[in-house]
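Section 4.2 – Deliverable D4.2 (structural model, holo form)

The reporting period included a commitment to supply a predicted holo structure for the target in complex with NAP. Inputs used:
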Amino acid sequence: MNIGILGTGMVGEALGTKFIQLGHNVKMGSRTANNEAAVKWTQAAGAKASQGTFADAAAFGAMVFICLKGATFLEVAKTLTPTVLMGKVLVDVSNPLDFSRGMPPSLSVCNTNSLGEEVQKAVPAARVVKTLNIVNAEVMVDPAKGGHPTMLVCGDDAEAKKAVAGLLSTMGWRDIIDLGGITEARGTEMLLPLWLNLFGLFGNANFGFKVVRG
Ligand SMILES: NC(=O)c1ccc[n+]([C@@H]2O[C@H](COP(=O)([O-])OP(=O)(O)OC[C@H]3O[C@@H](n4cnc5c(N)ncnc54)[C@H](OP(=O)(O)O)[C@@H]3O)[C@@H](O)[C@H]2O)c1
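Output (structure tokens):
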């Protein structure tokens, strides 16, 4: 599959590398076509890797991952041709973290709204799936490193969620729960303050949340 990655940070790099290892073709997108981190990653990742602008990566992917800082996708979306993501599975792994008032960060949107919902509103023709935002980048691509946690998925399109869950299982995710529609992103994004709390306590990011049922 052709996968577009919007973002050159640790998440974009980790996911891009994993997808290449799984045999996919990946284009990493940035604000500039020759972003230094993206060029470095492309050179290291081999023939199935390429880089370009956000628009290039969005056009390339049959599935496109949002790996951008905070809520910046909402601005990036305004720069994309309206049809470029039409019908595509748009996977939002980003978190609405706001560091403007210092540490710990707050959520720029929460309770009665979520970034996942705002992403879906920004690109109504795309099929948005929220997932992976509740673990560190290294655990995203190697769930064993986090002790095989549960992964939560939500979105309004059942087929899109199925496609994403399928990809997640090839990445090693064993316990995937479909929470329902994209409004359920509120809950997954509001896990972030708890995630940050645990990160501070443990001193490392090798953990996740496990849902157990009696
Ligand atoms: N780090 C983790 O382990 C982790 C885990 C779960 C979820 N997340 C979430 O995943 C997302 C990505 O995290 P990250 O740590 O990989 O990277 P990040 O530093 O949060 O974001 C890097 C990306 O954001 C883009 N960006 C920054 N400011 C921008 C702006 N004003 N307009 C457009 N694009 C902008 C950068 O574009 P350029 O390429 O042009 O510089 C870059 O591609 C975040 O929302 C984060 O909360 C992170």
